[in-house]
Structure formats: structure tokens, C-alpha cells
Specification:
The strands form two sheets. The protein has a six-stranded mixed β-sheet, with helices on both faces. Helices cover 68% and strands 9% of the residues. It contains 20 helices and ten strands. A hairpin with a 2-residue loop joins strand 9 and strand 10. The chain has three domains: 323 residues, ABC transporter transmembrane region fold (Up-down Bundle), CATH 1.20.1560.10; 225 residues, P-loop containing nucleotide triphosphate hydrolases (Rossmann fold, 3-Layer(aba) Sandwich), CATH 3.40.50; 36 residues. By secondary structure, the chain is of the alpha/beta class. Helix 5 packs antiparallel against helix 10 and helix 6 packs antiparallel against helix 9. It binds adenosine-5'-triphosphate. The site of adenosine-5'-triphosphate has 12 residues, from helix 11.
Length: 617
């Protein structure tokens, strides 16, 4: 669909609103630490007062020397002691400032990390479908780190520079206005240059961040799919892709480095020019007798105290530019509306599933489900059949509210699905996916994930029903064997069966096997289905499978195609009429016969060929 100018203007406004809302959330977290920040800023103010008192001591001592006072030694010694004491006091308060600012920033960032992570957990699947994982990881790690640095050092530093200027300028003016003009003439230029620079590099910082996100995505996809990359000999292609992203990142970092170097060089030049102006101009005024040597030292020392932090403000502002970008990026995630939270129903969730005129689209042109109506009685075992893309998994996604539909209805027992609390609903379902996710934990921990209070007997009984107990007993550490990241130490079939045990241990009202026996052989599949039937009690079971030999065990079979129901009934009913189910059954039967025939031929031919080849050599 073409986007109009008003659409994109609406999008821009939406993005801006979201960023502003997110920024408010981040600032709320910071506000929670205001007492610690107040303490840090107070310590900074006290330390700065000591620091700004040092030039006064130096002025008194210098003037005493210039005048050749009688108690010269006394004045000089006390000035020296004062300088050491005041500098030490400044050091002590700087330590307190750093400590309290670190406590405040760590507290705020801990809250931020927690809020971000728990928010990501509550964001709808639609958001995660479109989100770039590498980019999200970057927002949760390096963007949060940028905010931490900003809160730990830059907030207080900006306050310090403001205070230094607010105190030093009136002191200078109270001493001599001409010297003040000389001492401050380049300061506005230095600050203006810093501000301009900060604006210019802001976009560059954004580009560097985005590029780093792309780099992380490539890396993350590669590491998670390393086996696929190897299996398809795609290493060179992937290395080149990484090289390209790496080069793009390097170029942007390089541009940033050059911009920063130019800034430092120019601002250094301005700072030294400013100091030179005070030294030369002040010296001239002293020779003219218009100011005392002590005043000259005071100006020089005051300027030296404020000019480096003022010059550093460019860096601080540049970094705070980076931090505002990071805050906006984090804010965008925080402003995404999370899944709704409905009240938990008083009675346990169960009963018949009634689906009426259900239409759902992932946002593509073609709906994944199109006016689907069917019902599943409580305790029934049904099979969903259909070609790839028919909408079988989509129906399961809707049943456990991974996505919400807009048209049609689903009732579970008396409740409309969208009124049921998601956690309570998912608790009532045991869903086993084709490629289940296992954690790098022990077998037992993987099984009890949905029901951590399960006893050993319950774990073993579920493992028996899933036909995996024998395998687990054969492992060196039995149920305490660690399965490796994503279950890499297990075969595909073992992973699937472990996931079935995991679903069964919850004793759910609804069990869904979404093509989750595809990696086990037919005999094992039949054994598992029989064991499930024995345990099944009042449980409703939804079976998605491609082998008709297993789906025929279901009470009823639903045949879907292109999101629509095309046939429904028992195996016998469907076989009794001419239609897609009977055609599928006959086709699969003849394919299996052909396969059996080919295998028989191959096994009988192999020894003969081996013998004749042995005779030839
Ligand atoms: P299979 O037997 O291959 O698992 P299926 O019958 O389970 O297929 P679904 O996974 O439900 O099919 O997919 C139905 C349609 O929805 C397909 O056209 C698919 O491309 C699309 N689809 C599925 N998941 C998404 C998603 N997250 N985003 C966009 N489109 C999707």
C-alpha cells in the first residue's frame, strides 16, 4: 500500500510523541534518585567553594610580597597552608560528590534496566516480529551504559561548570572590569563552539549507534544460526556480510574521530589564547600600575580554574548529546504499549473451545485465518491438518493469545478469549512446538519450567509418557544432565520429547502438539500418542501433524487450507467421502508404499554390490 504524505506526517508525530513519553519515563526514574543527586551537587558546591578560595590566598600572598610587608613570612606560610588545606578539602568533597553521584546513577540505571527488561517481556509478539534483535540488545546494553555514564558524571559536571561560572564571573567583576573583559572575551566563543559542535555530531552519534546495532544483529544471527551457516557452506558469504557492516561502522567511527579531533585542537588553541591574553594584558596593567600583582595572579588562577572545565563542557555536551539519543532510543521501547492485563478468572480455565468466523492477518495482504469456524469439545482430541501455510500454527498462536484477533470470536468455556488474563490462559495450555527451546540447564530444570513445584515422581511420570525416560536414564547424570545451550547435546527427537514431558508436567487443561513429533519415528510417535491417550482424563488435545497415521487416532480431524476450514469429521467419515482428506490419505499411503519398496530394494542391493566390488579388486 502506498504511503501518503499525511500518513508519514502522522508517523513522525507518533514517533515524536512516543520518544517524548519515553523520555518522561526515563526522567521519572532519575527523579527517584533526587536526594542522592542533591547530596552530590551539594558536595560539589562545597568543594568548588574551597577551590575558588585558593586564588584569594594567592592574591594576598603575592600582594604582601610585592609590598614587602613586615609580617611577610607569616602571610606567605598561612597562604601556603591554606592552599594545601583548601585543595585537600576540595579533594574530599570531590570524592563525596563522585560517590553519591555513582550511587544515584547506579540506582537510576538499575531501575531503568529492570523497567526495560520487564517491559520487553510484556510487549506483544507483533512488536517482536518487527523488531531487530541486535538493535534491541544494543538498546538494553550500550544505550543503558551511555545513560549510566551521563548520570554518573555528566549531570554533576554540567552543574559544576555552571556554578564555577556563576561564582567566578562576579568575583572577577568585583576586582576589575577591564581585566574581567580580557579574562572572559573568548569564553563565549569556546562555549558557542562547543554547542555548535554538539549539535553537529548528534546525528553522527545516532548513525554510529545504528551501525553498531546492525553489526550486533549480523553477529547475533550468525552465532545463533552457526550450524545452518556451516551446513550450507555460507561462511564466506557471512564473513563478507560482517566485513561490510564492520567497514561501515569503522567509517562512521572514523568520521566521528576526525570531528572530535578537530574540535579538541581548535578549542585547545582558543583556551591557550585566552590564558595568553590574561597573562600579557594583566602584565601590562600591572606595569601601568592599574592593578596589583596579586589581582593579576588572582585573575590568572581563576581563569585557570574555570577554563579547563568550560573547555571540557564541549565533551560533556557531546556526550550528553549521545545520552539524549540513547534516552530517546530507550524511551521509544518503553513507550510501546504492552500487552493488556485482564483480571484472573476466579474459576479454573477449561471447557469447550468455540471459534466463530475468525479472521486474522499478521499485517500481510492475505489473512492467515479467513472466516474460520469450528468447535472442540472438552476432553476431545482433535487433529489439525493442512498444507504448509494453511494457518494451523496461527490458530494456536491466537488460542494462547500470542496475538489478538480483531474479527470473529473464540470462546474457551464461557469466556471470550480476549477477556481472559494471558498468564492464567497460558497456564491452562501446554504447548509443544516443532523446534522447542531448551535452556542450558539440567534435564529436570527444563522439564519443570512451567511447574517448578513438581515432585520427582511427577517429573518421571511425564518423562515416561513422553517416551524420554529411557534416554534420560542412559545419560551419565540422569535427570541432572545439563543439556547445553538450546539443547545442543540432544537429538531433535529427544528435544521434542523433553518438551512434551515439560508440557505434561503442568497437567494442562489443553495440550497442543504443534508438529512436535516430526523428529521421532512412527513407532515412537504411536507409543507417545497411546500414552497420552491413557493419561488424558478430561484434557483437550490439539494435534498438528503431517503423518496421517497419527492424526487418524484423533476423535475428529479438521482440514484447513488458506486459513479456511475445508473438511471436518472423524477419520472414517472423511474417508467415506471423496475430498481432500481421502486424496491425502491415498497419496501418503502410496508414497509410503513406494518408500518401503525403494528401501527394501536398496538394502537387498547393497551387500550384492559390496560383494561384486570386493571381487573386482
Ligand atoms: P506449517 O505447516 O508450515 O507450520 P501452518 O499451517 O502452521 O504451516 P502458519 O504458520 O499458521 O501456517 O502460517 C499461516 C500464514 O501466516 C502463512 O502464510 C505464513 O507465511 C504467515 N505467517 C505466519 N507467521 C507469521 C508472522 N509472524 N508474521 C507474518 N506472517 C506470518
Amino acid at each position: 500500500m502506498a504511503t501518503t504524505a499525511s500518513d508519514s506526517a502522522d508517523d513522525d508525530t507518533g514517533d515524536r510523541d512516543r520518544a517524548a513519553q519515553g523520555r518522561r519515563m526515563v526522567w521519572d526514574l532519575i527523579r527517584g534518585q533526587r536526594l542522592r543527586y542533591a547530596a552530590a551537587i551539594t558536595a560539589m558546591a562545597v568543594g568548588t567553594t574551597f577551590l575558588l578560595s585558593v586564588p584569594y590566598l594567592l592574591k594576598r600572598a603575592t600582594d604582601a610580597i610585592a609590598r614587602g610587608d613586615a609580617d611577610l613570612m607569616h602571610t606567605v606560610v598561612w597562604a601556603a597552608v591554606g592552599v594545601v588545606a583548601f585543595t585537600a578539602a576540595d579533594g574530599f568533597f570531590t570524592y563525596l560528590r563522585g560517590r553519591w553521584a555513582a550511587q544515584a546513577s547506579e540506582g537510576a540505571v538499575r531501575g531503568l534496566r529492570h523497567q526495560l527488561y520487564s517491559h520487553l517481556e510484556r510487549l506483544p509478539c507483533r512488536y517482536h516480529d518487527q523488531a531487530d534483535t541486535g538493535d534491541l540488545v544494543q538498546r538494553c546494553s550500550s544505550d543503558v551504559e551511555t545513560v549510566r555514564v551521563f548520570l554518573a558524571a555528566q549531570v554533576v559536571e554540567i552543574a559544576r561548570v555552571s556554578l564555577l561560572l556563576a561564582v567566578a564571573v562576579p568575583i572577577m567583576l568585583s576586582q576589575d572590569w577591564r581585566m574581567s573583559l580580557l579574562a572572559l572575551c573568548l569564553v563565549p566563543v569556546i562555549v558557542a563552539m562547543a554547542l555548535l559542535f554538539f549539535r553537529k555530531v548528534r546525528r553522527l552519534f545516532e548513525q554510529v549507534d545504528e551501525s553498531e546495532g546492525r553489526l550486533t544483529t549480523v553477529l547475533q544471527e550468525n552465532l545463533t544460526g552457526i550450524r545452518v551457516v556451516r551446513a550450507f557452506a555460507q561462511q564466506d558469504h557471512e564473513i563478507n556480510k560482517f566485513l561490510e557492516r564492520n567497514g561501515e561502522f569503522r567509517d562512521l567511527e572514523y568520521r566521528l574521530f576526525i570531528a572530535m579531533s578537530n574540535y579538541w585542537t581548535t578549542s585547545d588553541l582558543l583556551v591557550f589564547t585566552q590564558i595568553g591574553i590574561v597573562l600579557v594584558g594583566g602584565g601590562f596593567f600591572v606595569v601601568q600600575g592599574q592593578i596589583s600583582p596579586g589581582t593579576w595572579v588572582l585573575f590568572w588562577w581563576l581563569l585557570r580554574t574555570i577554563i579547563w572545565p568550560v573547555r571540557h563542557i564541549g565533551r560533556v555536551l557531546a556526550d550528553s548529546g549521545k545520552a539524549t539519543v540513547a534516552i530517546d532510543r530507550i524511551g521509544e521501547v518503553l513507550a510501546e504499549p504492552p500487552e493488556s492485563v485482564e483480571a484472573v478468572p476466579a474459576e479454573p480455565i477449561g471447557g469447550a473451545i468455540t471459534i466463530e468466523n475468525l479472521t486474522f492477518s499478521y499485517g500481510n495482504d492475505r489473512p492467515a485465518l479467513d472466516g474460520l469456524s469450528l468447535n472442540i469439545a472438552e476432553g476431545e482430541t482433535v487433529a489439525l491438518l493442512g498444507p504448509p501455510g494453511a494457518g494451523k500454527s496461527t490458530l494456536i498462536n491466537l488460542l494462547v493469545r500470542l496475538y489478538d484477533y480483531e474479527q470473529g470470536s473464540i470462546h474457551v468455556g464461557p469466556h471470550e478469549l480476549r477477556t481472559i488474563n494471558r498468564d492464567a490462559l497460558r497456564d491452562a495450555f501446554g504447548v509443544v512446538l516443532q523446534d522447542p527451546f531448551l535452556y542450558s540447564k539440567t534435564v529436570r530444570e527444563n522439564i519443570v519450567i512451567g511447574h517448578t513445584a513438581a515432585s520427582d515422581a511427577e517429573v518421571e511420570s511425564s518423562a515416561h509418557a513422553a517416551d524420554i525416560h529411557g534416554n534420560i536414564s542412559g545419560f551419565a547424570d540422569g535427570y541432572d544432565t545439563v543439556v547445553g545451550e538450546r539443547g545442543v547435546t540432544l537429538s531433535g527427537g529427544q528435544r521434542q520429547r523433553l518438551a512434551i514431558a515439560r508440557a505434561l508436567v503442568k497437567d494442562p487443561a489443553f495440550l497442543v502438539l504443534d508438529d512436535s513429533l516430526s523428529a521421532v519415528d512412527t513407532k515412537t510417535e504411536a507409543r507417545i500418542l497411546r500414552a497420552l491417550a491413557r493419561r488424558h482424563g478430561n484434557r483437550t488435545t490439539i494435534l498438528i501433524a503431517h503423518r496421517l497415521s497419527s492424526t487418524r487416532l484423533a476423535d475428529r480431524i479438521f482440514l484447513l487450507d488458506q486459513g479456511r476450514l475445508v473438511q471436518a469429521g472423524t477419520h472414517d467419515e472423511l474417508m467415506a467421502v471423496e475430498g481432500p482428506y481421502r486424496r491425502l490419505w491415498n497419496l501418503q499411503g502410496s508414497l509410503e508404499d513406494d518408500l518401503r519398496h525403494d528401501l527394501a530394494e536398496a538394502t537387498s542391493a547393497t551387500p550384492r554390490r559390496a560383494v561384486s566390488e570386493a571381487q573386482r579388486t
